[in-house]
Each structure stands twice: as structure tokens, then as C-alpha cells.
Write a structure and sequence with these properties.
Strand 14 (338-344) and strand 15 form a beta hairpin. The radius of gyration is 23 Å and the shape is globular. The protein has helices at 13-24, 50-64, 74-90, 97-115, 163-167, 178-188, 209-213, 242-249, and strands spanning 4-8, 28-35, 67-72, 121-123, 128-135, 139-146, 169-170, 222-226, 261-266, 289-295, 300-305, 313-320, 324-326, 338-344, 352-358, 362-372, 379-384, 387-393. The protein has two domains: 4-213, HUPs (Rossmann fold, 3-Layer(aba) Sandwich); 218-396, Translation factors (Elongation Factor Tu (Ef-tu), domain 3), CATH 2.40.30.10. It has 396 residues and is α/β, with parallel strands linked by helices. The longest helix has 19 residues, at 97-115. Helix 1 runs parallel beside helix 2, helix 1 (13-24) packs across helix 6 and helix 3 runs antiparallel to helix 4 (97-115). It is 23% helix and 29% strand.
């Protein structure tokens, strides 16, 4: 009897080819489409309405001669992902809903749904890989590895998976590059072969973020305040003690309205994020304006001129211990320990050499070079070679 496996068939080319490869490998493949979002409020024209995706997914399943089902996880998605997103923006933080979607939906709620079909594993169309090693007297550890196609690697989005979740996950296209995936889809005559890659929020699509957030966060006018590049806080001096120095480097710059010049007006500080350039609607400056910080309590948005503005850069960041997740628990740092890793603080960012320090109060990441637009709420992830070892939500 063939081993059953459930593939999350989204209607996109990646999951379609993944389904084909699984069938070629001898699995009994069951395709399941997840309905996770139905509301179109704030979505932009052509942003992947789920009805169209369901149709394409069903056509692919027919072409491959595999069973096809639809499950509605929209209530779970709203509570576990979208509500969290609203809460984070209300706090002045910038969340990554795609990471939460994978942890809470695709590899949790969807896994539970898959088990009802008698499947022992689930598969997705992510560009990443996994394997396992034995150590510590034969104990098995599952590893999350970057996809072979470095330009499409999606391991970042899976940075919160647990050992149990990885043990039941299969990533069929992790060894392929995107070009070959599209070629295969074309050769097979799959309905998704020419479908463009989805963009925007996982399962929601591209959105007008302020409009989307206004479902729960109201507009409130406030000042856009410019901080000069020679602001006194940028001339920080640092103590000789290593721990004290790193903690100070990780501390965000603090601004007050009295430090700045009013340039314009915004519709709500919670609609903006550090490093943002578009959407400020302030013209006439010699260099483009970038958001340096937001103060949701006083409803202020602080900006600076030019991408080289010192307020955009810091050399360290902080992650609270309760927000640290080690995919490889055997490699977790203990208080007082440190280790070098390759780190990224957003998807597609080039890996940055850094040292992780586990101090009593929190985990700190100190980079070799200053990093631009460190955003509270985003995930920092760290790699050893191709392996994603751990991650954490940036607190500051």
C-alpha cells in the first residue's frame, strides 16, 4: 500500500509541480486547497481571489489524476494570524504574518486536517529542504535547510517550525530552481504553468495596508517630524564592557517632538514602519524621506532625509528570551554563551555575519556591519551554513 501524503495545493506553479514530483516518488497524493481568507477589504485589484485559485488547483489535480479536497480554515487564520497582525501594528511594531501563517496554519491547523485523510505527512511548494541527523546517543534531530535556488529560498518563512512539525514535512521542489519548476509545469500542461507568483500577505494577497488595517485601527491625524542627520544621539559613546556596549548598540534611538521640525501630517502612526519611503506624501525635500521611528502613544512619525541617514542604522538588536525559538534545540545558547552565525532580519536580505550573545536578560545579535531598518516585530533568523538553526521576534 502506498504511503499517503497531503499536498497543500494553492493553485500556484510551485505546489503544482510539488504534487507531480510526489506522485512520481510513489506516494498516494491527496491535494487539499486551504481557504484561509475571504474578505476583500483593502485588497488591490487582481490580488488572487481564492475562487480563481481553487479552480486552477482543481484543474491541476485532475491533470495529475489525484484526489482533490477543499478545507475552510478562515476562522483559524483570522484568529491566529490576522488578529495578531492588527495587534502588532497597534503597538507600533511590524509583524510578519507569513511566518505566523506557516507555524499556525500550514503546519498546524492544516496538518490536523490532513491527518483526517489518513496521511502521515504533508508537503508544500516551499523552496527549502529538510533532512535529519542522529547525535546525543542516537537522538534524531530534523534540520531545515535553505533551498538550492538561493534567489527563491523560502526557509526564512519557516523559521518558527518545531522539530515535530519538521518531522512530518516534505518539500519536493527544494532541490530545483524556479526556472526548472516552470519548465516542468509547461511540459506537463498544468493550468498553473504561467500563473504569476503570489505577492503580499500570505493568503490575503497585495493590500493597501492602511485601508486593510482600518478594519480595526482607526485613522488619527498626527505630525510628520524630521530629525536632522547630526542629531546628538547619533554621537553615542560606548563603554568598554562588552555586554554593556552591545546592549547600548541594540537600544533604538529615542526622539521627542522638540528635537524635530514638522514637515507634514499623517493619518496614524501605526500605519507606518521603520525604513518606509513611500506613503508619506511630503514633497520638496532634496533627498527622499525615510521613516526613522514611530511613536504610537503620541501619534508621531519621525523621518530623516536620505538612505544614508544615521538614524536608519544600528549595529545590534535585542530578542526577549521568550521570543527565541531554536529549531535545533541541541544548539541553543545558555546564559553567558555566544556563537557566530549568518543572520538576516528580513526576507531576501543577504546573510550578515554576526555574533549571538545570550545574556541573562535577553538574546542579543551584534553584527559586523551596521544594519538598516531594524524593525521590532520582524523575525531575525540565524544560519550555520545552509541550515536555519533558530529565530526570534525582534523586540528592539
Amino acid at each position: 500500500m502506498k504511503e499517503k501524503i497531503v499536498i497543500g495545493l494553492s493553485g500556484g506553479v510551485d505546489s503544482s509541480v510539488a504534487a507531480f514530483l510526489l506522485k512520481e516518488q510513489g506516494y498516494e497524493v491527496i491535494a487539499v486547497y486551504m481557504i484561509n481568507w475571504k474578505d476583500t477589504t483593502g485588497t488591490l485589484s487582481g490580488a488572487c481571489p481564492y475562487e480563481e485559485d481553487v479552480l486552477i488547483a482543481e484543474l491541476v489535480a485532475r491533470k495529475l489524476d489525484i484526489a482533490f479536497h477543499v478545507v475552510d480554515l478562515s476562522d483559524t487564520y483570522r484568529h491566529q494570524v490576522v488578529d495578531y497582525m492588527f495587534e502588532e501594528y497597534a503597538r507600533g511594531r511590524t509583524p510578519n504574518p507569513d511566518v505566523l501563517c506557516n507555524r499556525e496554519i500550514k503546519f498546524d491547523a492544516f496538518l490536523q486536517a490532513a491527518q483526517k485523510f489518513g496521511a502521515s505527512k504533508i508537503a508544500t511548494g516551499h523552496y527549502c529542504r529538510s533532512d535529519s541527523i542522529s547525535k546525543d546517543g542516537g537522538r534524531v534531530y530534523y534540520r531545515l535547510l535553505a533551498g538550492r535556488d538561493k534567489s527563491k529560498d523560502q526557509s526564512y518563512f519557516l523559521c518558527q517550525l518545531s522539530q515535530e512539525q519538521l518531522s512530518q514535512a516534505v518539500f519536493p521542489i527544494g532541490e530545483l530552481n524556479k526556472g526548472r519548476v516552470r519548465e516542468l509545469a509547461g511540459e506537463l500542461g498544468l493550468a498553473s504553468a504561467q500563473k504569476r507568483d503570489s505577492q503580499g500577505i500570505c493568503f490575503v494577497g497585495k493590500v493597501d495596508l492602511p485601508v486593510f488595517l482600518q478594519q480595526k485601527l482607526s485613522s488619527k491625524k498626527g505630525p510628520i517630524l524630521e530629525i536632522p542627520s547630526d542629531f546628538k544621539a547619533y554621537r553615542r559613546s560606548y563603554p568598554d564592557d562588552l555586554e554593556a556596549k552591545i546592549k547600548k548598540q541594540a537600544r533604538p534611538y529615542q526622539y521627542r517632538a522638540s528635537d524635530a521640525v514638522v514637515l507634514g501630517e499623517h493619518q496614524g502612526a501605526h500605519f507606518y514602519t521603520v525604513g518606509q519611503r513611500k506613503g508619506l506624501h511630503v514633497g520638496g525635500t532634496e533627498k527622499p524621506l525615510y521613516v526613522l521611528a514611530t511613536d504610537v502613544e503620541n501619534n508621531c512619525v519621525y523621518v530623516g532625509r536620505g538612505e544614508d541617514h544615521p538614524g536608519l542604522y544600528r549595529k545590534a538588536l535585542k530578542i526577549q528570551h521568550q521570543e527565541v525559538h531554536w529549531i535545533r534545540p541541541d544548539m541553543a545558547l545558555k546564559p553567558g554563551e555566544s556563537a557566530g552565525y549568518s543572520v538576516r532580519i528580513r526576507y531576501r536580505q543577504a546573510l550578515q555575519p554576526a555574533i549571538l550573545y545570550c545574556f541573562d536578560d535577553a538574546l542579543y545579535i551584534a553584527f559586523e556591519e551596521k544594519q538598516r531598518s531594524i524593525m521590532a516585530g520582524q523575525f531575525a533568523v540565524w544560519y550555520r551554513g545552509d541550515e536555519l538553526v533558530g529565530s526570534g521576534v525582534i523586540s528592539s
